[in-house]
């Protein structure tokens, strides 16, 4: 593999191109390398190859078509290639590196698998092969060609190679490069979450659950960049578990090769491939280099830098406010544990939605109307939804949160529509303009401590409001909600439409549509 402008080798070439002497011996040929004068012309290639049959060729000179020259290389890694649907064996794929540090992909067709004795880490010489065109997608090397083993290929162990051949080479991408280039590269960083668990000195993996699901999810951050969601499947997941346990302590650095980037709902997700390998703290030189950096830069490494992370980072209120003040911060979701000090009164604790898009329903000439242009209903049935401000605190800071939609039901155990209907049932003479006071169900939450999933919005980042929006609430002892790892989804902060309610309570509840005087309620649009 020749280095390209958009791939880096462990930050610099010296760090990732770790060269060691082989322990096996070989007979030097004394031949000089040969290259084709016209590498894209198969006829010229064949003629030259025939004339110099036993000369050694570097990977940089490999081109398309049949070749009879000799290659010398180390076998870095090998894996089976199977049809994704039928699981039929297609062949055996390999990652090879020569003495110049150039990496190329190798391939043994299914009919020849087992013919060659291949062992990862060994050094070989190969005579006679075919230069196949590299894949446009999911390639594991940047080279234009693949070394395909053909009918007359002759492979043998190279004993005592005259030149040291590197053990490995990596092609790292940063978050920005993964976003810009949807090709397979390597990823290195420190782990923030493993299957939803924050790493501690006593983190234990649920290997049974991982084996049943065939995958796990790791949130990885490279230096102080955005957090990326990395899915490890099958062999990669198994390798992760084995290495994680083998350390006898909690490892922190994760390096995964040939990950496939995907943008799902605007969120960057990385997925392992059949060719992926997993390394941790002390396994290879690039992971050692990163671990050394991590040990010297814990403050930078722990700085919050979420890029619409689908799994929520746990922060204190102080850290939350610090993130909002950072110039490069973007919209993100976080988890805070706090105690409710009071329910803010003096403004309406709910609003009336259209029942479809959760947008505020407005009073029309004869009925309620939805102010969301996507809503096709000319008339809507108003559905009360929570829009409740609460003052909260943790050990060091105070803040004001606003509870929206179903988050209110998670807090009180009751839907807003039920509480509003109960009020009008108990107050038969109340008209549409009657102020609905804060219900006891909300007041009873004062003094409770809970986990709040909050959204830092554009309004927070631009300084338009200091009120933080709550999209979900959990009690401290409850686990975080499971999120689908099979197909990552973009989680919206709007709640599902509330169910309708029947008469006569529903008729009385609709009177509340005209009693909304809160400016926040007038401005609010869910979703």
TrEMBL record:
InterPro entries, alphabetized: NA-bd_OB-fold (IPR012340)
SUPFAM superfamilies with a match to the protein in the record: Nucleic acid-binding proteins (SSF50249)
Biased composition (Polar residues): 1-10, 19-45
Region: Disordered, residue numbers: 1-45, 476-527
Ranges annotated as biased composition (Basic and acidic residues): 505-527
The protein, known as: Replication factor A C-terminal domain-containing protein
């Amino acid at each position: 593999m020749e280095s390209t402008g958009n791939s880096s080798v462990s930050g610099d070439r010296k760090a990732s191109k770790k060269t060691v002497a082989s322990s096996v011996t070989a007979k030097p040929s004394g031949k000089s390398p040969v290259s084709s004068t016209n590498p894209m012309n198969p006829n010229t290639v064949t003629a030259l190859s025939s004339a110099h049959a036993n000369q050694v060729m570097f990977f940089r000179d490999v081109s398309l078509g049949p070749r009879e020259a000799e290659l010398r290389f180390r076998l870095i890694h090998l894996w089976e290639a199977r049809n994704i649907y039928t699981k039929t064996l297609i062949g055996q794929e390999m990652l090879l590196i020569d003495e110049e540090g150039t990496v190329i992909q190798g391939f043994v067709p299914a009919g020849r698998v087992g013919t060659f004795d291949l062992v990862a880490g060994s050094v070989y010489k190969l005579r006679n092969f075919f230069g196949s065109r590299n894949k446009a997608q999911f390639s594991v090397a940047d080279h234009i060609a693949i070394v395909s083993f053909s009918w007359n290929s002759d492979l043998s162990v190279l004993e005592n190679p005259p030149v040291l051949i590197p053990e490995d080479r990596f092609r790292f991408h940063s978050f920005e490069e993964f976003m810009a280039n949807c090709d397979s590269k390597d990823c290195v960083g420190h782990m923030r979450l493993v299957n939803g668990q924050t790493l501690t000195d006593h983190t234990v993996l649920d290997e049974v659950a991982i084996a049943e699901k065939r995958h796990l999810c790791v949130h990885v951050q490279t230096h102080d960049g955005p957090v990326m969601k990395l899915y490890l499947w099958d062999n990669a997941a198994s390798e992760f578990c084995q290495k994680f346990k083998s350390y006898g302590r909690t490892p922190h650095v994760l390096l995964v090769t040939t990950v496939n980037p995907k943008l799902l709902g605007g969120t960057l997700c990385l997925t392992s491939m059949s060719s992926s390998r997993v390394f941790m703290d002390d396994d290879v030189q690039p992971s050692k280099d990163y671990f050394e950096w991590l040990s010297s830069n814990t403050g930078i490494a722990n700085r919050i830098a979420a890029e619409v992370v689908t799994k929520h980072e746990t922060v204190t209120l102080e850290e939350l406010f610090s993130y909002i003040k950072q110039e490069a911060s973007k919209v993100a979701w976080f988890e805070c544990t706090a105690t409710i000090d009071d329910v803010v009164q003096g403004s309406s604790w709910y609003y009336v939605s259209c029942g479809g898009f959760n947008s505020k329903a407005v009073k029309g000439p004869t009925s309620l109307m939805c102010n969301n242009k996507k809503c096709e209903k000319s008339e809507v049935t108003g559905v009360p939804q929570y829009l409740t401000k609460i003052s909260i605190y943790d050990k060091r800071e105070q803040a004001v949160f606003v509870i929206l939609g179903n988050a209110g039901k998670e807090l009180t155990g009751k839907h807003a529509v039920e509480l509003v209907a109960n009020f009008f049932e108990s107050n038969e003479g109340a008209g549409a303009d009657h102020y609905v006071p804060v219900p006891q169900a909300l007041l009873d939450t004062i003094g409770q401590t809970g986990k709040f999933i909050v959204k830092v919005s554009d309004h927070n980042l631009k300084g338009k409001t200091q009120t933080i929006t709550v999209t979900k609430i959990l009690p401290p002892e409850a686990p975080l909600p499971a999120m689908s790892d099979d197909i990552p989804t973009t989680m919206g902060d709007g709640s599902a439409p509330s169910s309708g309610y029947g008469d006569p309570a529903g008729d009385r509840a609709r009177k509340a549509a005209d009693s909304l005087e809160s400016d926040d309620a007038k401005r609010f649009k869910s979703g």
